[in-house]
Design a protein that fits this description.
- The strands form five sheets. Strands 1, 2, 6, 7, 8, 9, 10 and 12 form an eight-stranded antiparallel β-sheet that branches. Strands 13, 14, 16, 17, 18, 19, 20 and 22 form an eight-stranded antiparallel β-sheet that branches. The chain has a two-stranded antiparallel ribbon with strand order 3-4.
- The chain is about 5% helix and about 40% strand.
- The termini are far apart.
- The protein has about 325 residues and is mainly beta.
Length: about 325
């Protein structure tokens, strides 16, 4: 069982915003100048990059990321990524882990907004991140100051080399459909995890991804609790709304699923992550404690009528793993 490695130096935007370059949400690397050594799609892989000693393919050493060949002329290499959803961007991580003698010394980022389709030769690109220095085998976190909505980004590297992962953090643009039923806990709709008490084996943000988990590693899993209490996470909904149905999916969790779960909820128009965590202990109960089963989708409709809420606290008793959480409801009218 893998332990999740959290970078203690990672800025807050990596925890409180959605990675819009995640292929599980629909993002895709759609074009690049060159990916001779390592395919551009690997740069978006949701798992942590790895180095496999002695692994080679027909082009040379296998690397877990995007890697272009050595440039022998003018210019630089680039890759275009279609984001999972039109969104505002608040920060990026250009990750060169395991690239040491083959990382680019510099990189920059541009963005565009395409109403239909993908960018072409006439597309206007707007600089988001000026050329910054890169180092080998390291994260490079940069905040982005832009309120505009973007659909694609273009990563340029100078002049060539390898990038292990590109993460583009932001908030999906508001969903124009407010009358239809919506999963208010879906990351693709704008929901995000505010805080959690433990992510030893799996990140809480995984709860908000689409589809069912592909294995036990594709979910939120806490360590075995050896003291009183229970584990929890606080989630900001995609939009203020009224929740009328809850789904808790324990896919692949068999000997380690929680015994039970509950939900608390409240309408919180403001507050810091720290204040929300403190206040969440006293939020009213939306879903009373419910027994859970292993490896199953469980639906709950007997909910307390709390009206419009903006945040929920998902409690698991006492610990364990949950693959997905769905909170179906209607977006509140403006």
């Amino acid at each position: 069982m893998a332990v999740v490695t959290l970078d203690p130096d990672a800025p807050d935007f990596t925890r409180h915003f959605t990675n819009l370059a995640d292929p599980r949400l629909g993002a895709e690397a759609i074009a690049c100048s060159d990916d001779f050594f390592a395919a551009m799609a690997r740069m978006l892989a949701p798992d942590e990059p790895v180095f496999v000693p002695g692994k080679y393919d027909t082009h040379g050493k296998w690397m877990d990321g995007w890697e272009s060949r050595r440039k022998r002329g003018p210019g630089n290499d680039w890759c275009v990524v279609r984001l999972a959803r039109a969104a505002t961007i608040v920060g990026v991580d250009i990750d060169t882990r395991h690239f040491t003698g083959n990382y680019p010394p510099g990189a920059s980022l541009e963005a565009c907004h395409c109403t239909h389709g993908d960018p072409d030769a006439d597309t206007l690109w707007t600089p988001l991140l000026p050329t910054v220095a890169l180092h080998g085998n390291a994260h490079h976190y940069h905040s982005i100051a832009s309120d505009a909505v973007w659909t694609h980004v273009r990563l340029s590297i100078y002049p060539d080399g390898g990038i292990a992962r590109l993460r583009v953090y932001g908030r999906p643009a508001a969903n124009p459909i407010v009358a239809a039923e919506l999963d208010l806990a879906a990351a693709i709709n704008g929901a995000h995890v505010v805080a959690t008490n433990n992510e030893h084996f799996g990140r809480a943000a995984t709860l908000l991804l689409p589809g069912r988990g592909v294995n036990m590693g594709d979910g939120w899993e806490t360590r075995r609790r050896r003291e009183p209490g229970n584990d929890w996470c606080v989630i900001a909904l995609a939009a203020p709304g009224i929740i009328h149905r809850v789904e808790v999916d324990t896919a692949h969790f068999k000997g380690n699923y929680p015994d039970a779960c509950s939900l608390q909820a409240a309408h919180m128009p403001g507050g810091t992550p720290q204040s929300l965590v403190t206040q969440s202990m006293f939020w009213p109960e939306l879903l009373a404690p419910q027994k859970l089963q292993m490896d199953a989708v469980q639906s709950f409709e007997e909910l307390t009528k709390l009206g419009v809420v903006t945040h929920v606290r998902f409690n698991i008793f006492p610990d364990g793993g949950v693959s997905r959480l769905r909170l179906f409801g209607k977006v509140a009218s403006a």
